[in-house]
């Protein structure tokens, strides 16, 4: 039997409980063996932007968030010294490295509407099934329609997850921190402390 690996890709700037709950629910619903958190690399022009965490800090926040969960893992597969890699390249690389695994790429509904603009959606669909979570009250009808559209266009396997709808985004958390508002409980405790100690998102 092939190992079933969920891939949770994202900027994770910062990683929040929305990401963690989504990954845990995907793990449970699809009976995955592991979920790998894969922070995306930043192209050179997006390094060290004001009000953002560095690559190293984003990785550190992911590490802290998943430390106590035995079926979560950190993967720095997309952290390239010379910038970022495309999702399809990453997934194809994983197939080569670990041929005895099947991959489930986890995305929120907003990413489903961007999917058409990603590089080589056809190759992503060949390399992985797509697990889709509702987000920010995207109407069920519209989500189903978009999944069908992409399924036909790219011959993909799109599976809807039954996750709770958590109104939370990294953008909101960055804004709140900059404004001096509390983001406590939206993040794992260790990450909350780390952000304060490092003074991230203050600028
Ligand atoms: P930003 O606000 O900076 O875009 P984000 O909160 O959307 O950040 P990302 O790192 O962009 O976080 O998200 C990674 C993946 O997790 C995406 O597929 C996104 O759709 C999904 N995701 C993030 N937050 C949620 C949430 N609250 N519910 C469902 N999916 C989510
Ligand atoms: Mg996002």
Automatic annotation (TrEMBL):
Keywords: ATP-binding, NAD, Nucleotide-binding, Nucleotidyltransferase, Pyridine nucleotide biosynthesis, Transferase. It catalyses: nicotinate beta-D-ribonucleotide + ATP + H(+) = deamido-NAD(+) + diphosphate. It holds the Pfam family CTP_transf_like. One of its GO terms (biological process) is NAD+ biosynthetic process. Pathway: Cofactor biosynthesis; NAD(+) biosynthesis; deamido-NAD(+) from nicotinate D-ribonucleotide: step 1/1. One of its GO terms (molecular function) is ATP binding. Its EC number is 2.7.7.18. Residues 7-174 form the Cytidyltransferase-like domain. InterPro entries: Cyt_trans-like, NadD/NMNAT, Rossmann-like_a/b/a_fold. Transmembrane segments: none annotated. Gene3D superfamilies: HUPs. SUPFAM superfamilies: Nucleotidylyl transferase. Catalyzes the reversible adenylation of nicotinate mononucleotide (NaMN) to nicotinic acid adenine dinucleotide (NaAD). Belongs to the NadD family. HAMAP family: NaMN_adenylyltr. This is Probable nicotinate-nucleotide adenylyltransferase. The lineage of its organism: Bacteria, Bacillati, Bacillota, Clostridia, Lachnospirales.
